Amino acid sequence: MTPQEIESRIVRYGDLRPCRTAFIDAHTPGSDQKENFTIIGGGVSESPDQHVHIGIPHGFNIGAAGQPPKCRNSMHNHRTAEVFFILSGRWRFFWGEHGDAGEVILEEGDIFNIPTNIFRGFENIGTDYGMIMAVLGGDDAGGGVIWAPHVIEDAKAHGLILGENGKLYDSKKGETLPDGVSPMPLLTQAELDKVDCPSAMQVIGGYVRRYLDMVALAEDAPVKVIGETGIIRDKPGFEIDFITRACASDEMHKHDRPSVLMPVKGHWRVDYQGGSATLAPGDTMSVPEGLMHRAVPSMTGEAALYHIIATDDAAGATWQG
């Protein structure tokens, strides 16, 4: 492939186009300063204003959320896997219908494979604008977001209504539900009773991995973070590897499906048939299937990246209870 073709598959951090009306809590105080980014695939945005940077199917979606201090994402649920790693800042993740069932604090480089069928939310508890990168299972990411009932009610009080078609309508802009479209129904108590509510020990022990622990494990070989044989044993429809300077290989290789490189520390040079490109933290590169390539640190100092590739496993439930 030509350098121009490859560059079209790289989304630079500085070129990310945010959407500030992506979800139903976009007007709700405390959540109204969020910026959502859809990097690869359509994601689960409820807004027609959301820009998709790369539409090529990968078997998963890549997105990001940027938030200033004290800004939070409201309680929601997904039908497929949702994995976050911290690019910058300090973040609190919490779960349960009202966010009071458990919590964990994550720092830069940490990764969290959030199980399906639990309500989850997160907030930036750092002192500066922070960014978290996300991987969602499946090309259609499960068809959308399931919101806790109080989130839908709070949003309505601030002018946003979610239709049963999964689209947002903003009364502040004079929008109303189209004829034949009803509001998204609230979950019934019977449906809420079927949502899992695991303990902090269950979630943190099984689904959270710390950056420094992974660095220590990556002395000799890349760390399989999420996968059937991973340090998080799961099959959500994709695998994630963690690679550092210590275990980066000079050997050219290829995959039979598109893969994604996402640096979290340092600069990386990606050599491929036809040229090379340099990636920095926050950049996302889609590597075409069948393309011989390698990724190696291009500068001195700390260097780490995440590598994501789809598997043939269904992008289904991860929580094992």
Automatic annotation (TrEMBL):
Coiled-coil regions listed in the entry: none
Domain named Cupin type-2: residues: 69-132
Name of the featured protein: Cupin
Any single Pfam family the record assigns to this protein: Cupin_2
Domain of life from the UniProt record: Bacteria
SUPFAM superfamilies reported for this sequence: RmlC-like cupins (SSF51182)
InterPro entries (UniProt xref): Cupin_2, RmlC-like_jellyroll, RmlC_Cupin_sf
